[in-house]
Task: structure prediction
Amino acid sequence: MRFRLLPLLAAASLAISVSAAAEASDKASAAEPVKAVASFSILADMVRNVGGDRVEVTELVGPDGDAHEFNPTPADAKKLARADIFFVNGLGFEGWMERLETSSGFKGATVVASTGVTPRTMQEEHGDHVSGDDHDAGHEEHAEEHDHDHGDMDPHAWQDLANGEIYVANIRDGLIAADPGGKAIYEANAEKYLAALKAEDAAVKTALGALPQSRRRIITSHDAFGYFGDAYGLEILAPEGVSKASEPSAKDVATIIRQIRKDKIPAVFLENVTNAKILEQIATESGAKIGGTLYSDALSGPDGPAPTYLDMFRHNAGTLTAALSS
Amino acid sequence: MIETLLQPFAEFAFMRRALVGAIAISMTAPPVGVFLMLRRMSLMGDAMGHAILPGAAIGYLLAGLSLFAMSLGGFAAGLAVAVAAGLVARSRVIREDASLAGFYLLSLSLGVFIVSVHGTNVDLLHVLFGSVLALDDAALLLVAAIATVSLLTLAVIYRPLVLECFDPHYLRSVSRWSSPTHLIFLVLVVLNLVAGFQALGTLMAVGIMLLPSISSRFWVDGAGGMIVVAIAVAFVSSVVGLLVSYHYSVPTGPTVILSCGIFYLFSMFAGTRGGMLWRLMPRKHLEA
Result:
């Protein structure tokens, strides 16, 4: 009896200590990266740039996807449940977020990337900015199909690279809090990325600054470029307001067409995430040409022109400059 | 005054197109709606909106984001559901509404299943649905073509259809046209709905089909009279909706349907056939 008890006890204690070691909290050893989930593709790209190889990032709303109308599936809940850290935009962008967090049983940390950003409200700063009013009016029609509630804040803060820098800082701090072992790496990556963002910011300001004042107005489908317009000196007119769910009124469409005719606005811009019909109608009637596609709420696929956040800016700025300077 | 009414249409092509589109749908949808109401299939429009989802999903899977493929798929699915529901209702065990409910729930779950399994974020129905302010040439031609086909077909099957509504057993006893009429009618319903969704959006398509027809019941008794009143109401509401949306910056589709709705409420109170107002007034004894 005694002979067999000892090996048995030894084996048992070995098994227990091995499993305890496996559950130890040093997550980011070489074999086990930090599992991060980002709510949409732009945020995911930023997290990849800061986290590098130490972080495994998946996104809920993929490239060319529409976060305004996202309906999470059980697969998404599973992804989130397994994650250590969840990055969201905030400012009301993800209406589905809270319910997904609760229902998936997510126990990790949530990082709101827009903490510290000064939000734009939807009250018009430019005299003829038409989009804000009917945002709430058309809201209820789609309330059953998906819920999101922006309130009056514009959530597209990433369209200003200065805010992008705040996002990166929050992401870096969030990653350090979740994985203190990687602090040096995250800080180094973040610094490199911030430098790249600053450089791009300057480049965009130069490119758009070269355009004459009279040409600095664009028409897009939905009001995603408010921050971009404020930061880089463009006036944005959009028939559909901040969320694509709102329906434009005849007056808004008429106002935009009149504006285009009066000011000879040369181009309207489609977006990768919206239905182009209303914009095409406006373009046909007013004589403006379709200046190209801008990337607003999502990156393109890997073969597209805007697979990363920085590429998105390069593409958007390039398309705008080309169409507005001709 | 005339100036206010005409100016938006004079100045903007999109308003003219919206008007033409609204006129077309106002002529084709209300007659179909009258018969839907008489046959107690009023909620069919709403159900069909969900029934077309698997067809659109399959169209999307086969051909990507092609509007034509998705509309065709949607039409096929809607037709399959409508016809299957109609055939099942022929049995005396369950009627139209129950069989339709069964099939539309089945096809809705199938559609959601297909879409989810392929993990796409694109809200398919939103791609399918247009807006009355964005009618391009293709959409206008589609609505006009549907209107023509639908009105001509209704003219042809008018008599058996009316009889089918009021005395189906008699029709079955004297003619072979009972089942074909019913099926042709269902085809018309799906045609009008799919075309309406694509051109005008769900709300306007279904609303224009049903609300004027329901209101017309309060004013006339005969099917023919109801059709005329329904078309008139739909047309006036469309014009009012477009003008109000233009002058007061409110969304167009809902405004048009709200105009129909306000007339419906008015009809409920003041309609010459069964309006509440008339029932409150003292009547002679022994008057029905």
Summary: Residues 26 and 217 of chain B are 17 Å apart (CA to CA). Chain B has one domain: 2-280. Chain B has a mean pLDDT of 84.
